[in-house]
Each structure stands twice: as C-alpha cells, then as structure tokens.
Amino acid sequence: MSSRLPLLDALRDQVLLCDGGMGSRIQMLDLDLTRDYWGQENCTEVLTLSRPELIREIHRGYYEAGADMVETNTFGASPITLGEFGLTEKTREINKKSAILAREAAESFADGRTRYVLGSIGPGTKLPSLGNVDYDTLEAALAEQGRGLIEGGVDAFLIETCQDTLQIKAAVNGMKIARAEMGVTTPIFVQVTVETTGTLLVGPDIAAAATVVHSLDADLMGLNCATGPQEMAEHVRWLSENWPRLISVLPNAGLPELVDGKTHYPLSPEEMAIWVERFIQEDGINLIGGCCGTSTPHIAALDGMLRRRAEGTGHHRPAPVARTSVWVPSVSSLYTQVPLRQENAYFSIGERCNANGSKKWRELQESHDWDGCVALGREQAKEGSNALDICTAFVGRDERAEMDEVIKRFTSSVNAPLVIDSTETPVIEAALKLHGGKPIINSINFEDGEGPAADRMVLARKFGAAVVALTIDEEGMARRPEDKLRIATRLIEFACDTYGLPQSDLMIDPLTFTIATGAEDDRKLGLWTLEGIKLIRDNFPDVQIVLGLSNISFGLNPAARAVLNSVYLDHAIKAGMTAAIVHVSKIRPLHMIAPEEVKVAEDLIFDRRTPDYDPLQTLLAMFADRKASEAVKRKVAETAEERLKDRIVDGDRKGLEADLEEAMTKMAPIDIINTVLLDGMKVVGELFGAGKMQLPFVLQSAETMKAAVAWLEPHMERAEGQQRGTIVLATVKGDVHDIGKNLVDIILTNNGYRVVNLGIKVPVADMIEAAKREKADAIGMSGLLVKSTVIMRENLEEITRGGLDVPVLLGGAALTRNYVEEDCVAAYNPTGRVAYARDAFDGLTLMDHIAQNKFDDYLAAISKRREGKSARRNARAPEQAETRGFGAVDKEAAQARRARMVADEPVLTPPFWGSKIITAPTEAVIPFLNERSLYQFQWGFRKQGRSLEDFMVWAKQELRPILKRMLELAAKDDILRPQASYGYWKAAGDGNDLVLFEEDGTTEAARFTLPRQMREDGDCIADFVRDINDPQRDVVGLQVVTVGQKASDIARDWFEENRYQDYLYLHGLSVEIAEAMAEYTHKRIRAELGFAAEDARDMDTLLQQNYRGSRYSFGYPACPRLEDQHPILALLGAERIGVSLTDGDQLHPEQSTSALVILNKRAKYFTI
After folding, report:
1. pTM over 0.90
2. What CA–CA distances, in Å, run from 227 to 196, 230, 250, 322, 794?
C-alpha cells in the first residue's frame, strides 16, 4: 500500500506542478530511426521499449527541475494509434512499462518529497464526431490502454488534448471499464484543447465541453495545448467561475510562429511563470505545467514561482487560492451549453421532429429527406426552441437506423441540445454513441416495473444525459395530484438515490391530458396537473418539471389549440413548471390574445362551469370558423410582383426565377425592373436610412437585384436610355482604399444607374477622359485619407480647366460636409456643382436628383440654408491636420520635458538589432482580432438601440458563424497570409525629432520630425525617448505587417462576380486581420523587451491599450506624415514581405500597416 497522500487530496491542499512537453525533450536527442524507433518514424511511444533509460532520464530531468508529477510516455499509446505503426499487440506492455519507468524516476530521489505519475491518454488520430472511428471500437481501445496504465501504477488518468466531446466520453468510459475490472478508484482528469477560434476542433466551446465532462463525473478539468496562456485566459476564467471541481492549466510556450523559416515558441520561462501565477492568484487553479514548446527551464521557473508563493508556510507548495464557483445545471448541443432553468422563461423543447406528432416530419423521414429534416430542426431552433425532441418511431420504419441518420446530422448541423425520444432502449443507446453533446433521454417510467427504467439509467449515467421521467407506474398514468407526487417521489429516489443522477438532471413529467373531450372525468385534468406541478415543486425544488403541453388541447381546432396552449403554459409556469415540449412559434404572449379568449380558456382549465355556461362549448363556438393564426409569420404575398418586391427587401433568391417568369406574363421585363424591383431597392434604402437594416443585408438585397436583372436581360432589347443615368466613379490618385467607392457602385448599379468604376489611384485626367467618353451625368470621387481631400479639391480645379461642369459627388472618411460645401464648392468654378455624400444611399439620393434634373435645386437649397450661418472662425481644412503642431521648436523646453518623461525608465536590451521576418498562421492572430471593430465598423452592423454589451452578446451568437465561415473560406484558399517585418533600433530625441541610430548608437539611420501639441507642456512622440545628449541610447521598435495582396485580389474578384455580401465580409476581415497582426507583433516586441507581465490578461481589455507604451501608426495625429514611412520600410526591408509605398505614400497591399513602437510607460495616444 502506497504511503503517498492520494493525489486528489494533495491537489485540494496545494497547487502542484506537472512536467513540460515530452516531445520537445525527445526532439533535442539525436535518435536513430532503425535502432531507436524500430523503423516507426514519429512513434515516440516505442522508445519506452527500445530506449527505456532515455525515457526514465527525461522524467528524472523534469523531477529535478521541480515537477511534482510527470506524464507517462503514452500520449499516442492506444491500440488504434499504435496500430498505425503495427504495434497494436504491444499496447498493454507499452502503457504498463511507461508507467513503471515514470515511477522508477519518481522513486530515485531520497529527499522525502512526494512525487506522482499521471497516465497520459491523448486524443489519437481518429475522432468519432468526424466519423473516423465508431464509439464502441474507441471505448474498447482506450479501456485496454487504461488497463496497462493501472498495471503500471499511475496515480491518475490524464485524458488530454481533447478535441471532441464524444472522444472524451469514450475515454472516460474506457478508464471506468478498466477501473471496474481491476478493482481500483484511479481518479480521472480531463484536459481540453481550445483552439484560437475559441472552440475545440470539432466545435464545442468551453461551456459545452464542461457540461459534458461534468456529467461524466471527472475529478478535474483543465486546458492544455493549442495556445499560450494569454489565449487561454478567457477560458480559464470561465472554469474558475463555473467549474465546481479541480482545475488544471498546461499551456504551450505561446503561439507557434515562423521566425526566419523555423518554428519557434516565443514565451520564455520567466514570462510563462508570470502568466501562470496570474491564473493561480486570480482563478484559484490546482495544477499547473507546460505543453508544447516547454522544457525543463520552464518547469524550473514555475517551480521557483510556486516556492516563492509558499514562503513562510512551512511547505514547498502554496495552498490554492479560494474561489467561489456556481455550476448551472445544463444540457448541451455539440457546440453550446443551454441551462435547464431559463431566466424569466421556460426551457422549450421543440416538438416538430417527432414522427408521432408531426405529419411533415413523418413525410421527410419516410422519403429519407435528411436535409429537409435538418432544415426543420434549424427552423425550430431559430424560432426559439432550447432543445429538440427527436423521435423516429412509427409503423413499418426501421426506428434505429433512421434515428442514427437523424442524430448524426443533427449533432453536426443543428445547434440545439437533443432529446432522444424512444421506447426502445437499444435505439437510445445507439443514438448516445453518436452524439457528443449532453442530451436528454425521453424517457423512463414504471409501467413495466423498474427493469426498463434501470437499463436507461445505466445509459444516462454512462453517457452523461439528463432524463425525462413520466409519472406512470404499474397501475397506470397518474391523474390526481397526490398520485403524481407519489410516483414522482419514487422516480426521484430511483434515479437520484439509486443511480446517482443529480436531481437537477431529472425532468419529471406529471402528464398532461386533454380537457377538450367534454367527458365529465376529464374536466378536472388540467387543474390536477397544475396542482401536481405545485406539489412536486414544493417537495423537490431542484428537479425540473416538464410537460408535453399540446396534449391539453387535443381535439380542438388549430386556432383554439394555440390559445388554450398559450394560456395553459402561462399557468403551468406560475405553478412551477420549468420546461415544456411545445411548438414555440404557435405560443403567443397573453397580451396578444383577446381578453375574452383568455378568460374562456382559463374557465375551461379551472372548470368554472355554471348551469348556463360551459366554457368548452363557448370556446368551440368562439373558434368555429377561425383558421390557425399565422400572425407570427409574415403573410406570403399573393402576386408575383409583390413577392418579387419582398424578395429584394429580404435578399431571398430561392424561387426567384419562378416569380420572374410569372411576372413576365403580365409585365415587360424593363417594367419589372423599373417598378417592382427598384421599388424593393427603394424600401431597402429607406430601411437602411432609418437604421432598421444592416449593411450586409443591404448587400444581400443587391445580390438578389443583380440576379433578377441578369435573368431578365436576355428577354430585353438593348435600348438606349434603359439606364437612369451614368456616373464615373474613382478613388483619387495615391489612395488605395476602394470599399466605400465599391459600395456606392453596388447601390447605384442595383438602382438602375450605369456605373463606370475606374478603380483606385486614379489620376484626374483619366476621370475627365472617361466622363467625356461615357457622356457621364456625374463624377464621383472617393478617398479615405486626409491627403485625398486636398487632391479632390485640386481635381475639381482641373475638371473645370478640362471644360466640364458635370455634377461631382465627393465621399470618404476624412471629408466633412463643411469642407465640401465651402472649400470644394468654391474650387469648382463657376457653377460649384459639388455635393457631399455621407454614404452609398446618400449617393443614390444625389443621383436621383441628377436624373430628375433637381440637382441644382438641391444645391440652391443647401446654399440658402448656409446663408444664415456666419463663416466659421479658425475653420480647419482637413489637410491642416498634416501641418498642425509643426511650428517653431523650443529645444530647451523639449529637453526638460523629455528628462521628466524618461526619468525612471529602464535601460532596454532587445534580443537583436535590425529587422526580422515573422509569418504567423491566421489561427495565431485571431485572438487579437477586434470583433467589435469588425462587426460595427467594417461590416456595418449597427447596435439598433442595444447597449454595446447587448450588441456584443447578439454579435457573438449571430455574427460569429459568419466570421467562422469567412475564416474557413480564407483558410481553404490561403487568402490571408499574415506576415511582419519588425526590429529594434537605438533612438534619441532631438527637439521635436525622433532620431534612430545604427547599433553603434552614433550613425544616424533615420530622423522623423514630429508634431507637438500646441499647449503648455504639450505631448510629442520624441519626448518618450532619452535626449540626444544623453550618453545612454533608448530603444524603439519598428514594425510593418500585411495580410498580402491575395486578399485584395480575391475581394475584387468577388465584387466583380456580384458576391457583394462576401466581398464586404472579406474586405473587412482582411483589414481587421492586418490590425490583429499588428497587435500580435506589438505584443511580441513588448514580450522580447521584458514587459509581457504588464499586459492585461483579458484580450478585450488589452486591445484598449492596456499594456506598456504605444504603437503609433502614420497618418494619425501624433505622426501624420505618410511620407515618413519611406525610411521605416527601408530599414525593415519591407519588400521581403511584399509591402511597398504608392505615389501617394500609402502602403500597398491595402491591408498593411506600419508603426513606431514606443515602450515608455507614459506614451499614450494623443491628438495635436
């Protein structure tokens, strides 16, 4: 019998340290493929047999570094993985021997310390949720691995790097099988791997994974692999606040990156220790260690940190920091968790995927239309169902085979927990082996005694399922309240006391019966169920109470059923019901039902008959001629023309051709476009202008419009004057930004205008030539930069000289209405026919004015409105931003201020001088993505009256799937290629100049003259480094990042293919990925200079400049001169990552950004 304190007890008392990466240690060794690996390349597990002394020494090295436990060399030692190397029959031997080697290493020390051994069980190479392996095969294989580990004497199983919750079930159950056979109680630990996307590989988020792991009674849950500690922080926090048992964190040494062609993990041992200490201090974790990229120095640093925290306690390990967690009883789909108790609502279970109750489902199932089945499931989830009841049993069908087909598809394609509904235990078992979420089994009862119920409880406990229990016993269904309570009590004792199901996972169904038969015996059944609910709730407050709601109204017509169901639901919730199987879209809030109808329904429920009033007869009469209300759905328009208009507004292309064909029987194609379709686009514009329609959906409408016009075109004669007008559009010379211009193109094109889009960086001569050639009715100029506003004004003067006086529309982020209506109007002599377009729909309104010959009237109205206003004093033209703050320099004052700014700043030593190239996988950059900026400012989604917090909750639910789709598209075609060139230069301040030096500190490499705030003690970037007269030089970082030209090329292709919505999404995503790469590179610079510990742990907070210093990009107020990027790009060798400057000093490709990185803690952003 071992004298070691059981590991679980030790972890409750102390924070313990596990080892680092086994692979990273083995890779350091010079091993022979034939002698050491037995010809099996990359099979590290075979080293246990071929080179046991090496494995023992690696374990010993980690123990010497300070580890309290090591993991066995069995990560890939299941018979399935070993089978790929022809070693299946050696499974037991390898696992046993690996455990013995680790134990020998632990016992080779004579210092009295307790050391433990964890049996490592990796995810293998085949995941059941992806269909690579069936559940039974996987469970049996892992049980064999567990047997070997038990024989070798491990202290706990560590099921790690889990990427699939169904694999977790197989692994945990495999270990339980091995434990039971061998009579041991070895603890089971589970560690999941959350990718940079925020989910496990097959899709579950941390909450969904934890819901499954909790239901399997694992003793510890943690995170390992895939990312560094920063990227894990959000998920560790979630576990800390929710997970009720032990927690572990074993991160990689940061996110891997390619540095000068080699894979590198950036986190140093000291930085790793700083991060992990935060988790100990703030999140109360119990077990720490390292994964990929960590080795003995990392473990030594973690050991040193733990010893320091334990000083003065008499122990070498600190006690875990106390934490308070609140576990919310839940079920889950494969992807997300859903609490069984809904806040201010009931847990709704959709009833329409049931072959016994839904004719539509039965027809879909009979024809094996599995896609139709999935669509019906998704429709219910969209309507608000929290879970979906799945039943495939009806006469003449193969229930099990068809249940399997449905479960497989629903698990991966419908994001809602599943209720597996069958009277056949084998059907339920087969379904459970296919489903990675935490489902609900429907159901158990005592109709045939406890035998069948016992079989299902075994399955529920094994696979971690909640259970519906019906109040039926050997005598029949409980009708009276006292019988419902009696059977419910027996069910609770049976399921919870005998089988260990938490009461919160048991859903008692006290049964609902129809009250619409008119039979005297049935009149009180609705009331008795309500009373039964209250009795069960009062006696067992933790159990869930569920009803098959629609039974109450069986026999009535659909309209009456909808009302009675809605009223009964309200009373059942008040009585204590927590869940209902229901058709959600047919439930209406009581305030939307006529009061007299509510009263009659309540009178029927509570049997309030009088000699001259029978509520049942009144209800029947009330609804005799009424059809089921479809008020919840918009009525489908009756005519093809109305349907087409709706299609444009909804962006709905399915069935478009049929409606166009029908409309053409009554109208000419040109009339369909000019009246019906353009009317729809007009509604779209009005909705967008009123803030009731989001930009991406506007583009969806435009795609539908484009498709409709393309379908109609072959049926039309090409007649002159078909278009409403022509505009020449261009982004001005030197400016590479085209998203705004292209949105104008999309909106105008799909509202009947001809657009001649000249592209980006267009000289004014090309605009004039195109306007004359195309007989344009207008010219539109776009530009994002301050510099572009100056070019626009100069272009207007040139257009005048070119003999044109066509209306000119100006738009772009740097423009203001005042600047256009004063400065630009004055520059376009003599007519001043210039107008400001705030957005694409403004552009449409202005083009409508032009087409209707009302443009001059519009300008006259604006001029009249401005007459009463005095000219602005000290009016600033946009371009003045480039010259503000560049006045006379007071060198002495600058020197004195600089001395204060750098007084207590440390001397920095970078890891290298000059530049270095890094390539990061997109997944590594995603954690730095600013989702709010992407959704609101790039994709154009508006808050629409929501708070920012509510908007982000909505966005994470509704927009993250779009983000995920775009990232998958980008990965598939290698569209995004984040790269950076960054490096370090010595630096000093000289007046308002920032001077960079070569490594010798005296040879000047570059000089930037920067603006200073025009106030007392005003800021200037040059103040944040030591003075040029100081013998000690400071250090400045430079960086330029890009996602490559391919993103711009593909976006342009999609624009030309009329994929407007995807064009917007890709353009916005590539801009924000470039920004994320800038954050990623900036973080690397801070880490390399020793400031990682000052970073905020929460990524959203970090992105709000919660770190040391600032990253100043050119074109912003503190360093406004774009031309200053020339020396930066030259020093960084930016051409190596394909980045250059245009004639207008803009970075090319467009999705690129450069910056000065200042590390002074006082350096923050400021305006001039």
Report:
1. no
2. 7, 8, 10, 26, 51
